[in-house]
Design a protein that fits this description.
With 299 residues, the chain is an alpha/beta fold. The protein contains 9 helices and 12 strands. 40% of the residues lie in helices and 14% in strands. β4, α4 and β5 form a beta-alpha-beta unit. The longest helix is centred in the first third of the chain and has 22 residues. The chain is globular.
């Protein structure tokens, strides 16, 4: 049986991991600050000790992150502390305690100017401060000497916390039409499916059957634009998708540059023998079936 430590356990991914794992400690940032070296060492040592006492296999799944893409442009010190230094401290603690680490990263480590799905072997060239801090975290983990894997994902949404699905639902309740960019492509990823995938990987890395490739991509299957994603959300809300109108990124300038192309190849995931993620549209329907009230704005 696995015994998991999930830093960032109060976030949308952390909560779905905690809900699906059998034995898990999923502290939020107030309980476990990944930038606090002493706290990180203690948490990992405790995980290893308790797991050994109970005959379990310990694994750390790092879901802690500074996710403010725009605020990171002016808050780089804090973003780097959480996204760069935090993973370094976790990896060092895991190496010392001989505990496997799975670190969750992002499509923003790529420049977003491609025209075919990014593979794990493609060079990282982030264009934003957020992406730069996440790339630093990846490098720290992979160079730590720990038994560690980096899993990149993208366009994540879930029942907890703020995300694109909830934003669209709120706008739908207050506006006749909504304009959404149609020139950025990516892979919507439900945290429920992502959590299941990460738990499957955790089961593998806890044994001698761990994937040999240390960087993996795990996103919803297929691809779409934010405009296409928004129309699907309106459909799930029982609303007319024609209320969503296409626009360009230039119509909505943001402090941090957004990748025009964020589709990630799942080659590494499939070749590792891990189950492919289902199509993003099918996952969206499943998310509404399981967590519908969470995605509807309060009456």
């Amino acid at each position: 049986m696995l015994s998991l430590l999930v830093p960032g356990g109060h976030g949308q991914l952390g909560r779905d991991l905690a809900a699906r794992a059998e034995v898990v400690r999923a502290p939020g940032s107030a309980e476990l600050d990944v930038t606090n070296a002493g706290a990180v060492v203690t948490a990992v040592k405790t995980l290893a000790s308790v797991a050994e006492e109970n005959g379990h296999r310990p694994v750390v799944v790092n879901a802690a992150a500074y996710n403010g893409v725009d605020t990171a442009e002016t808050d780089g010190t804090r973003a780097f502390a959480v996204n760069g230094d935090g993973p370094r401290l976790l990896a060092a603690a895991c190496a010392a305690a001989n505990v496997p680490l799975i670190h969750v990263s992002t499509d923003y480590v790529f420049p977003g100017d491609g025209d075919h799905p990014y593979d794990t072997t493609d060079p990282v060239r982030p264009k934003s401060v957020y992406g730069t801090t996440k790339a630093a975290g990846e490098a720290a983990v992979l160079g730590s000497g720990a038994r560690a894997w980096v899993v990149r994902t993208a366009w994540v949404y879930g029942a907890h916390g703020g995300n694109f699905v909830k934003t669209m639902a709120k706008l739908a309740a207050t506006r006749d039409t909504v304009s959404v960019v149609d020139d950025q492509r990516g892979c919507p990823t439900w945290t429920g499916d992502l959590a299941e995938g990460l738990l499957g990987l955790a089961s593998r890395v806890a044994t001698d059957d761990a994937p040999t490739e240390r960087v993996l991509h795990c996103t919803g299957g297929g691809e779409t634009t934010w405009f296409g994603f928004a129309r699907a959300i309106f459909e799930e809300l029982g609303l007319d998708p024609a209320r969503v109108r296409p626009c360009t990124s230039a119509d909505f300038p943001r402090p941090a540059p957004r990748p025009a192309y964020s589709v990630l190849s799942d080659r590494s995931w499939r070749e590792a023998g891990l189950p492919p993620m289902r199509p993003w549209r099918e996952a969206l329907s499943a998310a509404f079936t399981e967590h519908g009230p969470h995605f509807h704005p309060p009456a």
